[in-house]
Specification:
SH3 type barrels, Fumarylacetoacetate hydrolase, domain 2, eight-stranded mixed sheet, six-stranded mixed sheet, binds manganese (II) ion
Length: 415
């Protein structure tokens, strides 16, 4: 028996069939920027207006907001209830189809917004290949991994207020930087603007201050997954990060996908973690399979330049969640925590240009042109598949640091 598929045109067998059903927030392009925001569910090349389609259902008040937060706060039993209703309605060719189809919009007719209000944002450093590469680049004469790395998932608190939705332009940041050969620091545009291809986890169910969240409660708290680009200005970062960690080299923008894939949709791609030595302390131990087999790719100006495999990531998301609450710090609905740069063991599997260019020393090419870090005008798209699912992409274009000023012919010294 084959799995049920949807009656929505273009949905059956696509990366957005009823086994996926990611959530987003949209308005109608025809109504302009002030179009009312509403929760949408992607099915094939269409978006279902969830609150309108489910207005007579008992959960209707949970999905009628302008962000996903109230729905995410309602907890796992509501997430499961809505998903079951959607799967039934989008497969039923008769009664449901007639009442649901009028609330479908073509994807090109909607404008997508940031799907959830971000509460706190934490970024980890969970890939052993990425951490080892960065260690080799920055501390060539020392052990690549610092002594704590295999004992806890290293992380830092990022800036929640500058998380932006896919499609948002990123202005090249300016800041203070000092190269190894510079006598003094200088202030100006970053010359080493980079990406970090990451997987983000979105918290739905909060926790109480003082409580810890065990690894076994991961699926009760985490609503879903988004692709994430942790834009990074390496020159600003390298000068500022000692001793308190990343700051302005990261906080100018972090892009997330417009579609949140429900955690339940990723059940079929759960895989064991690649193995941990030494065994983690009890609060970080997990019931396997605790990893996810997501295949990422990074595209620059239409060309795939690297394919990072998430399944090789050392620390799993349940471990990251247990660690970040291990001191009793509470979770809020909308908290976002990310994997850190996803890099595999091979050179064409790295998740940053720092690694792809080996510290800027070995250029890579796109369209026959050499690159080390990003140029103004470059557009980066991170995509991923999870088995038959296509995760929502995260896209961004680099704009020059200073907005172009009008030029007046014959005015000034150039004439
Ligand atoms: Mn990062």
């Amino acid at each position: 028996m084959s799995a049920p598929t949807t009656w929505v045109p273009g949905g059956a067998g696509s990366g957005y069939d009823v086994d996926h059903l990611p959530y987003g927030v949209f308005g109608l392009r025809a109504e302009g920027p002030s179009s009312r925001r509403r929760i949408g569910v992607r099915i094939g090349d269409h978006v279902l207006d969830l609150a309108a389609a489910a207005r007579h259902e008992p959960f209707a008040h949970r999905v009628s907001g302008e962000t996903l937060n109230p729905f995410m706060a309602a907890g796992r039993s509501t997430w499961d209830e809505v998903r079951r209703w959607l799967q039934a309605a989008l497969v039923d060719h008769d009664a449901a189809a007639q009442h649901v189809s009028e609330h479908l919009h073509r994807i090109e007719d909607v404008a997508l917004h940031l799907p959830f209000e971000v509460a706190d944002y934490v970024d980890f450093y969970a890939s052993v290949d990425h951490a080892s590469n960065v260690g080799r680049l920055f501390r060539p004469d020392a052990e690549p991994l610092l002594p704590n790395w295999r004992h806890l998932p290293v992380g830092y608190h990022g800036r929640a207020g500058t998380v932006v939705v896919s499609g948002t332009d990123v202005v090249r940041p300016v800041g203070q930087r000092k190269g190894p050969d510079d006598a003094e620091p200088a202030f100006g545009p970053s010359a080493r603007l980079d990406i970090e291809a990451e997987v983000g986890f979105v918290v739905g169910t909060p926790s109480r201050l003082g409580d810890t969240v065990p690894t076994s409660a991961f699926a009760d708290h985490v609503f879903g997954v988004v692709l994430l680009n942790d834009w990074s200005a390496r020159d600003i970062q390298a000068w500022e990060y000692v001793p308190l960690g990343p700051f302005l080299g990261k906080s100018f923008a972090t892009s997330v996908a417009a579609w949140v894939t429900p955690l339940a949709a990723l059940e079929p791609v759960r895989v064991p973690l690649p193995g941990q030595d030494p065994p983690p302390l009890p609060y970080l131990q997990v019931q396997e399979p605790a990893g996810y087999d997501l295949a990422l790719e990074v595209e620059v100006d239409g060309e795939v330049v690297t394919r990072p495999p998430y399944r090789t990531t050392y620390w799993g998301p349940a471990q990251m969640l247990a660690h970040l609450t291990g001191n009793g710090a509470s979770l809020r609905t909308g908290d976002l925590f990310a994997s850190g740069t996803v890099s595999g063991p091979e050179r064409d599997q790295v998740g940053s240009f720092l690694e792809l260019s080996w510290g800027g020393r070995e250029p890579w090419t796109v369209g026959g042109e050499e690159r080390t870090f990003l140029r103004d005008g470059d557009e980066v798209v991170i995509r991923a598949t999870a088995g038959t699912l296509t995760l929502g992409e995260v896209r961004g274009r680099i704009l020059p640091p200073v907005p172009p000023r009008p030029r007046f012919e014959g005015f000034g010294s150039e004439s």
